[in-house]
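Usage example:
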Amino acid sequence: MRYLFSVARKTDQYDAKKAEAQGEAPTAERDVNAALDILDASARGLGAFHINACLRCGICNDTCHIYLAEPQTANLPAAKAAVISSLLRRRHTFLGRHLPSFVGARDLTTNVLDEMPETVFGRCTACGRCAVHCVLGIDLREIIRIGRQMCAAAGRVPDGIQRTVANQLETGNQMAIPRDELLSTAQWLTDDLKLETGDDSIRIPVDEFGKRVLYLINPREVKFFPLSLMAAAGVFHAAGESWTISSKFYDITNYGFFSGDDTAAAEITRRVVAEAEALGVEEIVLSECGHGYRAFRWEGPRWLGKPYPLPVRSVIELLDKYIESGRIKVDPRKNAERVTLHDPCNLVRLGGVSEPQRRILARVAADFVEMTPNREDNFCCGGGGGMLALSEYGDRRVASGKIKADQIRATGAKIVATPCHNCADQLLELSKRYKLGTEIQAIVELVYNALA
Ligand code: SF4
Ligand code: SF4
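Running the assembly step on the lines above writes:
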């Protein structure tokens, strides 16, 4: 109820003619109209329910890691929703049209557009935790994404995210890694694997036609975390898997999902599917990436307007099957230190993959303990929703991760396993900032280490 009485009621009618007379750039009207098209389209779909239904009861307040870290009105879940719902109410309700200030309705202006990124990119990681606790089942993440779509249509996506989308469209991967660098990384990792295992037949296959699996990776695995690609290659080899990566379209990430640009997101998805078909694989397997899983597995077919021509699953699901079927043998004593698990929001709460990683850890680690809360009620690490690409919100990101740091400390674990490279980056920083003394590892690294 706190929020009910603290909402700012404000109306500032957009008047294009007046704005033009005041010398406003002609693009301003176009930006507003482009954003309004998105808003109006949402009014025709389920988005309208999510946008309009909030009672501002405040029950979800304490579920948001950003509000808990910075308890200000602007960080309340309902306040973030109100940034969008106030615009919708103005155009699509009787009272909003005729008595806007009475119902907290306002017009979309360039000022409102300019302020919107702060809310939809800077104060929400679109983690969806508030929806789990909402009395009405309102999915605030849906509302935030409508806001992000409006920003994308109006050219208001923050640079850090927009640059990443542009990289991916221009070069095929979000970090603009040249093809030669990928090839040389695959080569030296292959050399290291041969040395480490003493097996001369082990390798990282690139652009090989007719293999069973196309393995998509996070470009961070090429640049910063090559051990997880090396571990995957070691496990695939042990399992006798037939697999390849592509040197052109290997990137599992999709920052169009974060930016709200569905056209870009669809194009990034389309290229990967076309590459899988060109390479003649039977299945696409996704490396450990929370938003990449959510975007490719669940949003991709919607963006493309048709189902995929081949199955898609997370490598976590594949590793679980290897172990369950006895295709690989593991010895938990090889991971003797206490391990806990961080649940990436997009893989678990929003992606539906929660149990395979637990079955795996129970078998590959001698001392696996859960952190609390977990699974669909997990707290976001603070780095989701594209936040890691936005240096302007770095302090807020680290502050909002304190809840996760406290959860980790309470487990007494020395290793935090997480099936997401994005979360791994944030957890590494949290470990340093909050002096946790923990290592961060991908699930596949623990599996590789446990190979018997
Ligand atoms: S989706 Fe997550 S970050 Fe956004 S308001 Fe809800 S709990 Fe907070
Ligand atoms: S989102 Fe749901 S729980 Fe949160 S204030 Fe609105 S109605 Fe209440």
